[in-house]
Amino acid sequence: MDEKTPLQAVQEILKAESQRGFKETLEVAINLKDLDLTLPKNRVEEEVPLPKGRGRNLKVAVFGSPELVAKIKGAADLTILPDQMDTYFKDKRASRKQVDAIDFFLAEAPFMPTIGKRLGTVLGPRGKMPRPIPPGADPSSLIQSLKRTVRLRNKGKRTFHVAVGTRDMSAEDLAQNVQAVLDRLVGKLERGRNNIGSVYVKTTMGKSVRLW
Hints:
Helix content: 25-40%
Strand content: 15-25%
CATH class of the largest domain: Alpha Beta
Shape: globular
Number of domains: 2
CATH topology of the largest domain: Ribulose 1,5 Bisphosphate Carboxylase/Oxygenase
């Protein structure tokens, strides 16, 4: 089978399909091979900033002190102050709902042990444990980077999907995002591209086109 470039695959998809009544996501479907996925080193757990963004607004929350919250005013979608944390930790049902609505979490380093202990069972399985903010640091640029970032997580499975944009983006922009994901994945795998059985690109409800 002839291989396609990311641009060729995306153009084929966009040409073949009409616009739907909602903003479809463009996904990359990846099938791994020749890997012992019981070994932690072979599990894919990567974050990739997309050069052309996600095509939708991602949400970032920050656990932080009043001083930090004042510093990042307007950058984060949700801020959780120390006097709000206890309530946040106690109401697990509400916190689960909130966690599902947020894409990425950050936390000032001193709060990390408490967050892990009190909320780790909610954040951990979702791959959303906060990344620490060093004391005195301004995470505004990190927040902006996370708003265009996707997670590559195979959860121990050979086949997994990753969103790389939305159908209303240009074919060129989507192709750049696809390439960024594949480059990171190839660099992560033990035997690089030889550990990838196939790669498909598809929209939420549309046809799939084989890339490799």
